[in-house]
């Protein structure tokens, strides 16, 4: 970015900056997890075996750390060229009457809630209520 001709190609410059920001976010997230891991290790060294409160705190910290690692692993899986593109999810109840229709609706709600929690946007394009 410090090269004198960097801004000559505006589109390429924006792409380079976007990629640099992605990598920066990735490094900062892992660095944060490393700090939290070091904090837990230090606390584990200092805690007495009989101190239930500190052990419970360590347990909560480890759960949060595990969740953070899982989130970054998930983000790592979604780094392919096409992973930033939209997706279409189709749910068909198939044969089975009312029960399969109920199951399809539950599945649609589950996916909707999951996308809400992950911060993904979605819209229902077509729905045929049963």
Describe the structure.
- The chain has helices spanning 10-46, 52-77, 97-118.
- The model has no long low-confidence stretch (mean pLDDT 87).
- It is mostly helical and 130 residues long.
- Helix 1 runs antiparallel to helix 2 (52-77).
- The longest helix is centred in the first third of the chain and has 37 residues, at 10-46.
- It folds into two domains: 8-85; 86-130.
- The protein is built from three helices and no strands.
Order of helices and strands, N to C? HHH
User: Uncertain spans, ≥5 residues at pLDDT below 50?
Assistant: none
Helix amount: 55-70%
Tell me how many strands there are: 0
Q: Look at the structure and give the mean pLDDT.
A: 87
The tally of helices reads 3
- End-to-end gap: 57 Å
Features:
flat; 2 domains; 130 residues; 3 helices; mainly alpha; 0% strand
């Amino acid at each position: 970015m410090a090269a004198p001709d960097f801004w000559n190609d505006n589109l390429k410059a924006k792409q380079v900056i976007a990629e640099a920001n992605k990598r920066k976010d990735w490094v900062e997230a892992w660095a944060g997890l490393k700090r939290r891991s070091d904090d837990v290790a230090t606390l584990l060294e200092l805690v007495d075996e009989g101190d239930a409160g500190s052990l419970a705190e360590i347990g909560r910290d480890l759960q949060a750390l595990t969740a953070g690692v899982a989130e970054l692993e998930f983000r790592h899986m979604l780094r392919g060229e096409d992973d930033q593109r939209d997706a279409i999810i189709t749910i068909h109840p198939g044969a089975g009457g009312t029960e399969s229709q109920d199951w399809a609706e539950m599945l649609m709600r589950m996916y909707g809630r999951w996308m809400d929690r992950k911060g993904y946007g979605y819209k229902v394009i077509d729905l045929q209520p049963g």
